[in-house]
Design goal:
about 200 residues; mainly alpha; single chain
């Protein structure tokens, strides 16, 4: 298959995988209230945790991450460029899923999954920075923001400039999706991890 066909196809595959709203699906199957009506209204793992169902939150985190990883792995058969396009597609699919009128999640788990597929040490750096910040601050949003700033720097430092550029783009999108969280952090009204 030529690059002219495979590259856009890789992006579409990534988008469709990324747009699967696992948090919403799992909470509906479990019979909890509509995830979009509680907490932040987000469909991601942090908001699933606000239902009090830790198992569902963990499953959402894993499945959302796998969307990014699987997209990258499938597309990697067409080369590194296809893999990166699929990763970007998965991220955009999670943020703007066609099934939910383009109102999705904030992309933290999918970001980790993309990093696992493209260059796993960067995923470890992201997770370690997130965990350290979360332990200190108890803010999931702040942890994600700091980790998303550190990750492109790490990729550039480790000799992966193209991945660093992709990571920087994804980080900017993630920061944009967290704009309301940033406002609440600055106002001191952001909810901490474990709060409903």
């Amino acid at each position: 298959m030529s690059a002219n066909v495979w590259l856009p196809l890789a992006f579409i595959i990534g988008y469709l995988l990324g747009s699967i709203p696992f948090g919403l699906v799992l909470t509906k199957l479990a019979g909890t209230e509509d995830l979009r009506s509680i907490g932040s209204g987000n469909i991601g793992a942090t908001n699933v945790l606000r239902t009090g169902r830790k198992g569902l939150a963990a499953a959402t985190l894993i499945l959302d991450a796998l969307k990014g990883t699987v997209a990258v792995i499938i597309a990697s058969y067409g080369g590194a460029e296809a893999a990166m396009l699929a990763g970007l597609g998965a991220f955009l699919g999670h943020l703007f899923p066609v099934w939910l009128k383009f109102k999705g999640g904030k992309g933290v788990a999918v970001y980790i999954g993309i990093l696992i597929g493209l260059f796993w040490p960067a995923a470890i750096v992201f997770c370690v920075v997130w965990l350290i910040t979360a332990v200190i601050s108890r803010y999931s949003s702040l942890s994600a923001l700091i980790a998303s700033v550190v990750t492109p720097i790490f990729l550039w430092w480790s000799g992966h400039p193209t991945l660093a550029e992709l990571s920087a783009l994804v980080s900017l999108l993630l920061i944009y999706m967290h704009r309301a969280n940033i406002s609440r952090l600055m106002a001191g009204t952001e909810g901490k991890i474990g709060q409903k």
